[in-house]
Please model this.
Amino acid sequence: MRFLEKLEKLAKKNKSLVCLGLDSDIEKIPKNFQNNRNKPIQFLFNKSIIDRTFSYVCSYKFNVAFYYAIGLKGLQSLKLTIDYLKKNHPEIPVIVDAKIGDINNTNKAYAQFIFDYLGADGVTVNPYLGEESLRPFLVRKDKGIIVISKTSNPGAQELQNLPLEIKDDSLRKKMKEKIPLYQYIVYQVVYKWNKNKNCLLVVGATYPNELKEIRRMVGDQFWFLVPGIGAQGGDLEATVKAGLNRQGNGLIIHSSRAIIYDINPQKQVLKLKKEINKLISSYIIT
Model:
């Protein structure tokens, strides 16, 4: 099953647009897991979260940095967690958040690691090196290739909002003569890179005006991975209002720290799901 088909099917089944981030920082994992020093601590923690939340999410996302940070044990936990999901909840899309951006030959190796070894369904990628560099990902028709456009961090505007003069005649007909860099990336993805209909976009919840503009640019068909809700302070109502499509979906709303370290992660993820669904019922266009 293709990534977007899998995503849409589970979002409908679970009535959820929540993407839960299993960004398991070894320093923040509760002490009862830390006692298992000879075991893959992050996996044990992740498993406990999955077992309590799998029916409330549309996907799980793993930021690989938290697994790289402790070396081989971290990679073992990452592999064990994804294997656990594939075996017990194969309907749930798994996203590896690696923000990969390298030359074509190196990206081929990354694609093999993320898709063939880890078994992920989707990956975040960096567009800075251009479409040619991303082809090892883009040719994977069944995978979700989630291209960074507008990130959620405070310093995103330093480069992503730089005005860019458009000289490509085929694109100038579709846009203004000068647009910010993040919008140019959107157009490249939508009109040039998405030949296999497997692309998505990263658009941060902390920039609802930009999110609204990108939704206007791409229409209803594109899905956005939206980080920034929760610990980063993104406004949920503004996010849903700005990014929701007319089908009442199109958003993969990510939260991690605010949920997984809570004493009751099940309660928190259900709360977020209900808040999103309440907003959807208010803003959906029938």
